Every structure is written in structure tokens, then in C-alpha cells.
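I am hoping you can look over what I have pasted underneath with an eye to the fold:
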Amino acid sequence: MPGQDALARLQDAAVFWSVGSGTAAQVIETACDCIIAGIDSPTLQILAGISPVKGAENDELRRWLEGALSELSLTYYAEGSRESEEEALRIMARRLLAQTIPPRDLTSWAYRYISYDGTPLAAELVALDNAYDVVDAIHDWQPHSSTTTSDIDADVVVEVRRLLGHG
């Protein structure tokens, strides 16, 4: 269903914006995609009409996003909230399992946008990002060490499955 896909993309864009890894322009673009897909609501129209020109677009998005998501029965996550971090982490974890991103991209994203200060759910992934750096440094110094990035990749997949409750 194109409409359901458009709504899912809007939800994801809003979540990523709320943790700082997405832009207001991306949320506005997905709002436009929803309208093109035949989804309509008064506040969605306003959201889609926000100018994505750098400047006040974040303020406008803050003003209208919660209402637009509510009208569409989507979940609003406040900027910088623990809930937004956890949901963004789950989205990224599902992308890893769908093989649309590699393990190292997930860990570097978690390190950059959540860090050790964010949700405890990301702590192991942030630590694994550091492990990649250590392994890279060791291999530069001692190319025949036993730990490889593929070992860490496997650990990332195990952590993602745990995080998503897949055993």
C-alpha cells in the first residue's frame, strides 16, 4: 500500500528529526509524499506547505508536527526525548536486520546521535562502535590479530536481535 508506506516514512522521518539525525526538510518532503499518496488532513497540508529553506523550518515543524501526526494516528516523539532515541534505535536496528545498512553504520549512528549519554538501550552498540576503532588500530599495528571486524559485526547482530526481542 503506497499510503501506508508514505505514513511509515513520515513516522520515521519525524523520529529521526526528533533525535537530530534527520532534517526538517526530510519531514516536510515525507509530508508531501503522504499527500501525493492520497493521505490528507488539515495539519498535514500545513506541514507539507512549510518552506524547507534553512532558517525557521524547525520552528514551524515544532509548531505543526505533533498535530499532524496525531491527526494521522501516528506517534509524536518529543525532540531529544528518551522515547525518540529508543524508537530511532529500533528503526535503525530493523534496517540492519533488513540488510539495508551494515553493522558499522548502525554503531556509528548510535555513537553520533545517542552516545553514552542517551538511552541505555544504545550502550552496547556505542561500545561496539568503539570496538571497531580498537580493532582497526590493532590491525594497523599488528595485522594478524585474532579479532576482526566481522567478529564485531556478528556481535552487533546479536545485540540488535536482543534489542528487538528476537532472541
